[in-house]
Protein 1
Amino acid sequence: MKAGAEAALLSELWRVYDRVNAERFGGRLVRPVLGLASRERDLGRWTSSPRALELSWSLVADRPWCEVVAVLEHEMAHQYVDEVLGVRGEGPHGPTFRRVCAERGIDAGAGQPVRPADVEEPRIVRRIRKLLALADSPEPAEARAAAAKAYALMLEHRVEQVDAGVAPRCIVRQAGPVRTRWPKHLSLLAGLLAQHFFVQVTFVPAYDVRQGRAGKALELAGSADGVEIAVHVFEVVERAATLAWRQHGRGSGRAEQHRFLEGFVLGYRDQLAGEQVAAEARGLVWRGDPGLDAFVRGRFPRGLRTRRTRVVHEGSHGAGREAGRRLVVRKPITARGEGVVAALTGPVRRG
């Protein structure tokens, strides 16, 4: 990285440090030396002598910005325990550190390897996998029927978890790249994910390290498996909308393209609304997830602003909407090379 680009990156990291210090630590931290290191083993490190906070090059160059921020917050929590609380002898991730992170909405495991639990999958999860495999069928009717059944089973499985008092750990993941301007159809798609896929979505300030520019990133929060599904849906619908436009609108203007893409996303939303109605008829309804709400509030102590997106229903909008209604989102590819690992969060039985 050139000297000017590295200076711009460090300047952005300082802005994040100062913001987090004010919001989560009451401004009680004193700026240390902030640097970038070539080590691979540790994504971040706080050292008290000399006073230094380092992030690894592999983190800032290869990982989404939300992960960079999470590791920076994690190391700032170490600094707080060390310099403000003066706690010694507990080990780097002792009870005081975990309490500080929990109180301030900081991921105590940021940058740490995640080991999958060595447990057998529930039978209902295996059934969901098989249904999602059927969603790869070339026959649209069979594919949609399988996807709808999988959706209902995911809801049912999560209801059983809720009834048993099981609360999956919430995570955050970035969908798509950092953008200086988010097109309207992708804002609509973000809202669709929040409405139908049991995640919370937030546009947050972010930095594109490779391009050296600030913008906004779309963050999805929810259970690990719910977020995996939502990110997959975002990527598939975005690609499918672009492909459908190329097939439909060659030679048309940019305004028509925007209307088509907006219509496409709304058409897919129409399809999901039908699946939701069918699930509600079985006594399954989404009423929100208090645990997820609390998790997101902890991440944004100053609160969030909401916005509405207005859509113009004319021109190519109708053609896009019809194309979106025909879309079939097939199974996501996970680390296991298969479909969904477990259920989504949040639905409860209608009383």
Protein 2
Amino acid sequence: MNNVHCAGAVFLTAAVLVGCGEDRSDAEVERVRAIKPYFVVEPSGGDVRRFSGTIVAANSSALSFAVAGTVQAVEVNQGERVVEGQLLAALDTEPFELDVQAAQSQVATAQAGFDNSRVELDRQRQLYERGWVARAAYDQAIAAFDAADGELNLARSRLGLAERELANAGLLAPFDGVISRRDVEPFVEIQKGQTILQIDSEGALEVNLSVTDSIVGRLSVGAPVTIDAVAVPGCGCTGRVTEIGVAAGAANAVPVTAAILATPGGLLPGMGVEASLVLSDDDGSRGLLVPLVALAPGDDQARGYVFKYDESDGVVRKVAVAVEGDGIVRGNLVSISVGLDAGDIVAAAGVSFLRDGQRVKLLGE
């Protein structure tokens, strides 16, 4: 009997020790759960219209020199990746250096004239205070000093302008990106403001569309967009409208811009695509579809919750949502009318194991 009690005590002690060890391990290392993402873009109602569009970089800039001159070197080629502040091209600096030297000489001459006029003014003031010269001579000394001061300021301004033009003889990348166009070669004369390079931001892409004015009123910022590119099989890109023009152009078309939420490999600026835009119902329905399994049970505060992924912090946020009508709209999808926007990412499974503010990662990352 004593042996049985001893064995039980040993087993209990071991279990306690193991349990303590597990608690300590969990406390020291927080597990980052992987969640299955669902991109909220599909509407629960509304018409879908297709338009042809063109892929463009979200941030694109045509680059030119702020001064005219002769191109001495072009340091980049089309398609090359660059970083902010990198030297892209340079002009022959000799003319600008000579201008700086000439301006420096003018400053030195003007400084000497200013110093002499100041000494003469002091001398004339002392003579006038003693009554040895007329007021007119003193006034002339004041006028000469003011003129010398103006000449010095003008010379300094010319020097600053010459130094600025010398600094502008080098063209730097304004941001990280890719050189999408190169229109210049060394030893060519260029004019001020003449475009020689174009830089596009890398990764962030948009679609430029032209939507007829008769239906643009049914389109809203944030509306979901599906993009198909023939050159990128299986693209299936999703996006949302970010800008809607306020005036119609040719053929009564209004410019519309949609940001692509996740850029697949092979999708490049300049490619032609087909974009499917979702227009609101005439009754104003704006519901968005999410999987039923993405909903967490409600309480006294809300009918239901979803866990929305916060990309900036890498956590999920518990968000109260409102379900439209009777709930189920199609298959296992429900229509959410409040709490979500097109482009949001929600956890599509395992919501019962999540908590507000929990660190997570997207499945597959």
Protein 3
Amino acid sequence: MLTKLGETFTDLFQKYMPSAFVFAILLTILAALGAYFFMAASPIEVISSWYNGFFDLLSFGMQIVLIIITGFSIALSPTINKGIDALAVYIKTPKQVYFFVILIGSLLSLVSFGWIVITCVLARELAMRVKGVNYPFLIACAYFSFGGWVSGLSSSIPLLLNTENNFLIETGVLSSKIPTSYTLGSTLNIAMIVLFIVIAPLLFLLFIPKHSNGKELKDLLKSNNQLKEGSIKDEAESFKLPIKAISDTLNNTFVLPLIITAMGFTYIIYHFIKNGFDLNFNIMIFIFLMVGLFLHKTPMRYSIAMKRASSNVSGILFQYPFYAGIMGIMLYTGIGEKLAEGLISVMTIDSYPFFAYLTGGLVNFAIPSAGGEFAVVGPSIIEAVKGIAVGLPPEQVTAMVSRASLSVAYGESLSNMLQPFFILLVLPVMGSGVKLQSRDIMGYLVVPFVIFFVLQTLMVLYIPL
């Protein structure tokens, strides 16, 4: 029954869900109309807000591009391919592939959501090696696995709350930072981690499509006349001149990469000694760059690997500014804050976690960035919680603010399963060489979304910090 339901939703999404770009255009129009009618913003104010936000995600978008291509280039190295070959010996059935991808993906996402790239590479390679894997469903598995990032080390809202002199403190919304013992180390968050690494892999086994005919990766590649590329080493050799040349020696030397990677690894060690386990985007990109260069051994081979890894990132490059424009409308016209205020106006001391969770999920459709969204809705939610907590001990107020903030984070993360913004992280790797769009994937996520929505609602309401 659940399998049939999943396939029904997949058919509906294929018929009615547009591409991620069209989705962004429709959301832009909806946000603009909302700002015009509900905030009495003039057309030029709406358009100016859209333009002012248009480039707010350029830095983030470039970081995402570099995370994808540097992670993908590592996966193209002979060393990683041998490792995946060894792993594939023990994973022989489609069920094992689905289970393993969600489990490993959830664990990797606890380190950083950028590590979904590693999950995607592993999933794609397993799909090439194991017969009978429904590839669109496998992409859905990989995408769902990254939802656990919000409970992990790169969760932006708990990290923000624990940052000295963050914007909430500077504006007087909070009087001091909130330690991660109230958020990431809480019983609620640990339970949420268990939900992703234990329940999610088992849950998806109930939704496995009955048939994979025509939907295996090899079939999809074959139908698009995609020929397997030659090895990176062979391509590097093909660039050599027929005569001995210093340029070829420099292009194919092992020495220069060793010098650079020695410098790089030295800094990486220094960074973690100095800052602790500070795994931000920049240091992750730097690690991926150094590891990739080290594994490919020569400048020419690494350049070829990066070229191959960069072949499918156009979606991020031109779509992220449109999503940033939506965020600009929500931020600069005040409609995002207005929406949050409407949702939290009905909060009570018993129901505030649910409405914070719902706010996180709904606003995420227009502001698909946890940090950006919390900048809009966070102050209103925290003030509302403080209002209903008047007279309670400070420790209890802090706990309530922490629960509400976590609820926003969980709602924001789960609604990504219905919002195609972050699937743009997945498709450059798993969609390379195949004609698949978000509409082919996201129908498989509807039923898991509903189940997780119910489970997470009960958890934020009743599991203690």
